[in-house]
Amino acid sequence: MSNALSNAWKTIQAMSPDTEIWWDSSPLVWPNFKEDFLKNKLSDEEKAWFKQELETLYWDAPASSWIFKGCTTNPPLSWAVLKTRKEEWAGVIKEKRKAYKGRSKYGLFTQVYFEVVKRGAEKLLPIFESSGGKYGHVSGQVDMQQMRNEAAMKEMGEQLAALSPNVMVKIPGSTQGIPVFKHLASKGIATNATCVFTVPQIMAVANSVAEGRKLHLKEKSQRFGWRAVCTHMTGRLEDSKAFRGVVDKDNLNINALEMRAASELGVKKCARLFKERNLPIKMLICSARLHRCGSDWFYPHVDMFMGGNLVYTIPPKVFGDVLLYYRNRELKPHWNDEVPQETIEKLNQIPYFRLSSEEDGYAIEQFNEIPSLLENEVEFVGATKEMMEYVGSFL
Predict the structure, then answer these.
(1) Which residues contact 210 (CB under 8 A, 6 or more apart)?
(2) In sequence order, what are the residues at sequence separation of 6 or more whose Cβ sits closer than 8 angstroms to the Cβ of residue 275?
(3) Is the pTM of this model over 0.90?
(4) pLDDT tens digits for range 13-29
């Protein structure tokens, strides 16, 4: 049976030299993922095959064999490190506590959070160094509680970048976040835009990055390993109350797969505009959602972008699901497929879709009103506060 098995992620990677696969979690939980994945219902032969595959995909295997070319994290994922590896990180927090002279929960939390980012970055340094800084970045996100504070995001962004040369600073696509991309790019600091759901946000980020990059290229001394990506949080766009909620409320004739075409349209449109306008940034997609067709399980957000010039950042659950569900499946590129006009006309019934898919749908000063941004702000801030309270309990 092992001869019939295939690693879907390797197949996807092989479709295009421009496709990158990143790990959407802290690298520190990779050992836990490997252990959990092998608990799936597998034959002995399948289990042996997958075990061998997993051992080649990431550390401690040689960097030349890694499937992951980078890594993204966010507040919930950083908090997950402390919960998943509780005993280990309780020890780290205690050490930080001994050296910490203050009384602030937030102060101690920041030190522990930076340590999570720094240790994760260390795991990717081999590929960062061997690729000349092209690959191997780890995204460290600024505090979402500061989403409306430009100065605070600039300051924390510089602090995160100082942790390791391969730290890529993750900034929300809020009104106040847009100028931060220019500021950090002007210093040669790699950036990733997060909490981005719309074409207007993506293009505003890209333009800000391009302006900053021009400034940095004029400097005599340049930071090593600069690059920029822009995240489209695919499933989080369509699952918004302003999107799916309207479909359900108004009983619109739009099925679950047709809703997913909203992300397909936006991502492919922006990737095309990046190329046409020579903007120094790459699309990155996250938040893929699982669907079922008959007895088959699949991820439309994975399928629709196969063969594309973009980054997939994949959380452990999705990474494992695709390995499992696609292990005997023939895969084909769909990057050049277009969204059917009939589907676009259906989606145009949703005001949020119309605003999110047009470049001028939202002005920058309206970004803080984007429904999905506000919904995800609540989740990210909540995780930050939970982690802060836990770390603060050590004071």
Answers:
(1) 185, 279, 280, 281
(2) 309
(3) yes
(4) 999 999 999 999 989 89
Q: What is the pLDDT of residue 219?
A: 87
**Tens digit of pLDDT for each residue in 172-196?**
999 999 999 999 999 999 999 999 9
C-alpha distances in Å from residue 37, one per residue of 148, 211, 320: 39, 44, 6
End-to-end CA distance of the chain: 55
The encoded tokens of residue 187 equal: 């210093």
Q: Which residues are registered as beta bridge partners of 298?
A: 291
The tokens describing 274, both together, are: 């990046």
Query: 133: which residues sit within 8 A by CB, 6+ positions away?
Result: 165, 166, 224, 225, 226, 227
C-alpha closest to that of 350 among 257, 238, 234, 214: 238
Q: How many domains does the chain have?
A: 1
The pairing of strands 296-298 and 228-233 is unpaired
Neighbours of 137 (CB within 10 A): 29
Nearest to 133 by CA among 105, 168, 172: 168
CATH number of the domain residue 323 falls in? 3.20.20.70
Under 8 Å between Cβ of 175 and 364: yes
- Classify the phi-psi angles of 16: left when phi > 0, otherwise alpha if psi is within -120 to 50, otherwise beta: beta
pLDDT per residue over 350-387, tens digit each?
999 999 999 999 999 999 999 999 999 999 999 999 99
Range of the domain at 224: 2-392
Please write the tens of the pLDDT for every residue from 65-111. 999 999 999 888 899 999 989 999 999 999 999 999 999 999 999 99
